[in-house]
Amino acid sequence: WIFLWWLWFGIGFTLKIFLTNFISWILMVTQWFYHLWDVIEINWRVWTIKRIHALFTEVEQFDWIIYFVPNVKFLEEEVSNYHSNDKRRIDVNIWVDYTTDIVKAKNVMMQVVEKFPNVLKAPYPDVLVQEMWDSSIKLSLRFWINSKDGFFISKSNVTETVNLAFKQAGITIP
Fold first, then answer.
1. Strand (E) positions, 44-86?
2. H or E element that contains 16
């Protein structure tokens, strides 16, 4: 009898895992929570959805490592989907010296971001004075792009161009 009890326990446990993942797959597919090629984040790990299977979802990190995540994780964990909206905001934080003319620095940052064709005109980009630290002032350039336009490349290109524009304008970054 003990053997049969353990056998039923093992079968029941296996069925529970199978059914939770299968039901999660049904919800994922019918509710359109996620689509192929969506960029998602679970537990501070960023992945791209490659395939959604009945029991697991195949995801890929940006270094091309493939993982197989049980579908139930998509319902149990907090998931950020970076492609669920059609646009995404990028914040580029730059610290400037206290001797810097803040209005000039903000104007330079706005001139830079307005030159990029993938930056959306609405909502309009802006520059905010975020914080004043012991040795610098933190400026934040905020702008929007289409969510599928390449977040990291756009942020890198704008940051690099702001740095070059600051050097040409004589603005000091500590």
1. 45-52, 56-60, 66-70, 79-81
2. helix 2-31
Mean pLDDT estimate for the chain: 89
Tell which residue, 148, 66, 143, has the closest CA to residue 111: 143
84-105 tens-digit pLDDT: 788 999 999 999 999 999 999 9
* Per-residue tokens: 1: 């009898």
Rounded Cα distance between 105 and 119, Å, is 19
Q: Which of 114, 96, 113 is nearest to 105 (CA)?
A: 96
Regarding pTM above 0.85, the answer is no
**C-beta separation of 72 from 24 below 8 A:** yes
Q: Is the pLDDT of residue 128 over 90?
A: yes
Query: In this structure, what token pair is assigned to residue 43?
Result: 């537990």
Q: Which of 138, 143, 77 is nearest to 69 (CA)?
A: 77
Residue matched to tokens 């940051």: 159
